[in-house]
Amino acid sequence: xxxxxxxxxxxxxxxxxxxxxxxxxxxxxxxxxxxxxxxxxxxxxxxxxxxxxxxxxxxxxxxxxxxxxxxxxxxxxxxxxxxxxxxxxxxxxxxxxxxxxxxxxxxxxxxxxxxxxxxxxxxxxxxxxxxxxxxxxxxxxxxxxxxxxxxxxxxxxxxxxxxxxxxxxxxxxxxxxxxxxxxxxxxxxxxxxxxxxxxxxxxxxxxx
Length: 208
Fold this sequence. Notes:
It is a single chain. It is built from nine helices and six strands. The protein has helices at about 15-30, 55-65, 75-80, 85-95, 110-115, 120-125, 140-155, 170-175, 190-195, and strands spanning about 5-10, 35-40, 70, 100-105, 130-135, 160-165. The chain has a six-stranded parallel sheet, with helices on both faces.
């Protein structure tokens, strides 16, 4: 039986914190592999600000190139749904990995949102949560109280891996990417090259 980490997101674009979350999860949880899963059509985001699935998939491929145990999946682009729901992705993954344990890697914001997702009961049956604390979401005490609540209500298995003091966000990167003094420390140089070559995240009507 393998231990498989799942890191989902829009990855619009993928950045250094995504990679560090995956690396730390693999190290602490002794994961055999981590699969990055770009959202095809996330229900909570829409509009021109999201680049095409192909571009986001390609950027993840670039970001994880050469990192042992990391892979990227286009499974959400294959699922025939109008919106990409976590529970559908987990069900599809369980068909591929029926005898393995799935660990869904999330930020603490997801801990407070998960009950509003489709079929939270099934989500907790299909996977265990691996949680990183974000400094902008709640107090530590509120997060731990919520984790205990979910564990009791859903018999959920939740692993708290501690805080991330840096708070890198894809939206901040998009806001800054066309600035002359754009700092590239949060992005792989090859991704920056890809973004430039494909004219991604250009301003539209004064917005990104």
